[in-house]
Amino acid sequence: MVSPFARNFEWWAADYMNNPVLSPENSFSRWAANFNQKVSLKFSRGPRILIGYSLGGRLVLTAFKAQPELYDAVILLSTNPGLLRDKEKQERAQNDFQWSQKFLQMPWADLLREWNAQAVFKDSVTEPQRNETHFHRANLAAALTEWSLARQEDFRDFVAAQSPKILWLSGERDIKFLSISMELKKRAPALQTEVVSRASHRILFDNPSEVATHMIRFLEDKFT
After folding, report:
1. From CA 31, how far away is CA 106, in angstroms rounded?
2. Whole-angstrom distance, CA of residue 222 vs CA of residue 224
3. CB burial class (10 A; 0-12, 13-18, 19+) of residue 174?
4. pLDDT tens readout for residues 33-81
């Protein structure tokens, strides 16, 4: 059921796997410029709200920083603001390259089994169903390397500066990302952070109703 409040907005889900100007063929900065141009044309008047989960959240941060005046509110779910140490970046780049090769070569069922076994997805209640025919393996592989966390800048200072616009959501069982949200909150007390109960990293699937409740409350406080 769609929330009555949600009907107040026109929604657009960016297709960054099939649209060439939003695909992983684009670097972070080029993607942000293309995305913001589309938003400006599609939504000539505000308020404009950005919402992103995991990799989508990292892309959202890139677009937001490129043109912060374009957006009135930003909601980030299970999002990594960036790596701090060169060693972490090197390890992440190597890991993402290895995964990109698996996405190109492994049988689909084996690939999903190994992907879902990663520590970050531990304790997730519900795994999304993914049919191979719905995806382009080359694009998935490219996303892992072109949009690797190793290539992403650190957004911590930017998040602190823009904290009044941001809602940051993490799952209570997602220890790594919960600690990130606590770190960000300590740095920027104005940042609104919420913990989603009975949820790990995949908060959209683990507890969608509570995610929606937090989002609606945040948006109502801002726009009603």
Report:
1. 28
2. 6
3. buried
4. 999 999 999 998 889 999 999 999 999 999 999 999 999 999 999 999 9
How far the first Cα of the chain sits from its last, in Å, is 21
Check whether domain 5-84+153-223 has CATH 3.40.50.1820, yes or no: yes
Report phi then psi at 113, rounded to 5.
Answer: -60, -45
Measure CA 99 to chain center. Answer: 19
109-157 pLDDT, tens digit per residue, is 999 999 999 998 888 877 788 899 888 999 999 999 999 999 999 999 9
Q: pTM (2 decimals)?
A: 0.94
Please report the DSSP string for 96-120 in residue order: HHHHHHHHHHS-HHHHHHHHHTSGG
Give CATH 3.40.50.1820 domain extents, the chain.
5-84+153-223
**Of 52, 63, 139, which Cα lies nearest the Cα of 104?**
139
Evaluate whether 142 touches 99 at the Cβ level (below 8 Å).
Answer: no
Q: Is 51 in a helix, a strand, or coil? A: strand
Core vs surface per residue 135-161: b (16+ CB within 10 A) or e? eebebbbbbbbbbbbbebbebbebbbe
**Look-up of token digits 């966390």:** 149
